[in-house]
Design brief:
The chain has one domain. The longest helix has about 55 residues. The chain has about 120 residues and is mainly alpha-helical. Helix 2 packs across helix 3.
C-alpha cells in the first residue's frame, strides 16, 4: 500500500470518527450504539497503519489472498454492527410494548372511573 493511499485512508477514517463523535456530542446518536462503529474505525486505522498485519492474519487463518481477508473482515464488522443494531431494536421494541400496555391499562381504569361517576350522578 502506497504512503499516499495510507494518508488518504487515515484522513477519511479520522473525518468519519470526528463526524460520529460530533453526532454523539450533539446527542443525535447515543454512545452505546456508536461503539461498534468506533471499534470498526479503530480496526481499520490499525490495518492502514500496519499493512503487514493483514498479511500475517491472512497467513494465520489460511486464507488464500489478502483481498479475501479484507472482504472477510468487512463481513465480520458488518455482522458486529448488525448485531448491535438488533440488540438496540429489541430493547426499543420491548419498551414500546410495555408502554402501550401501560397506556391501555390506564385508559381502561379511566373509562371505569368515568362510568362509576356517571352512574353516581
Amino acid at each position: 500500500m502506497s504512503l499516499r493511499l495510507q494518508i488518504i485512508l487515515l484522513v477519511l477514517l479520522a473525518i468519519g470518527m470526528m463526524v460520529v463523535i460530533n453526532m454523539v456530542r450533539k446527542r443525535v446518536l447515543e454512545l452505546k450504539y456508536v461503539l461498534a462503529w468506533m471499534f470498526a474505525d479503530i480496526v481499520l486505522v490499525l490495518l492502514v497503519l500496519f499493512p503487514g498485519l493483514i498479511k500475517a492474519i491472512t497467513r494465520l487463518l489460511g486464507i488464500q489472498s489478502s483481498m479475501n481477508m479484507i472482504f472477510f473482515l468487512g463481513f465480520l464488522l458488518s455482522l458486529v454492527i448488525i448485531f448491535t443494531l438488533t440488540v438496540a431494536l429489541s430493547k426499543v421494541t420491548s419498551s414500546v410494548r410495555r408502554m402501550s400496555q401501560t397506556i391501555a391499562l390506564l385508559e381502561k381504569e379511566l373509562k371505569e372511573e368515568i362510568e362509576i361517576t356517571e352512574e353516581g350522578c
